Amino acid sequence: MENKSYTYILFSQRNGTLYVGVTNDLKRRITEHKKKMIPGFTQRFGVDKLGYFEEHNNIRLAIQREKELKGWNRKRKLALLEGFNPQWKDLFFELQ
């Protein structure tokens, strides 16, 4: 049996910059984003708030979903995030 994996959307601020990613450890990965441990887009643009995530039972499905979301236009990504998290809370602090 494979471990859980996650597709997620980070944001910098309400209606700000978005980032779509995938991981097998959501808490660890978001912590890395928050601590700016990985050089790149999220570090450069301060994108470190968890706005949306999905859990998958298979990493291949999570990666497939990540690619799908990355192909969406901004308006569609914002609608997904707002439907899931209308208050734009940083959901990282609610993870178990």
Walkthrough of the structure:
- This protein starts with a strand and ends in a 12-residue tail after the last helix.
- The chain has helices spanning 26-34, 41-45, 59-71, 74-84, and strands at residues 5-11, 18-23, 49-56.
- It has one domain (5-94): GIY-YIG endonuclease (3-Layer(aba) Sandwich).
- The chain has a 3-stranded antiparallel sheet with strand order 2-1-3, with helices on both faces.
- It is of the alpha+beta class.
Short description:
This protein has helices spanning 26-34, 41-45, 59-71, 74-84, and strands spanning 5-11, 18-23, 49-56. The protein is α+β, with helices and mostly antiparallel strands and 96 residues long.
What is the secondary structure topology, with strand pairs?
Blueprint (H helix, E strand, L loop, with lengths): L4 E7 L6 E6 L2 H9 L6 H5 L3 E8 L2 H13 L2 H11 L12
Antiparallel strand pairs: 1-2, 1-3
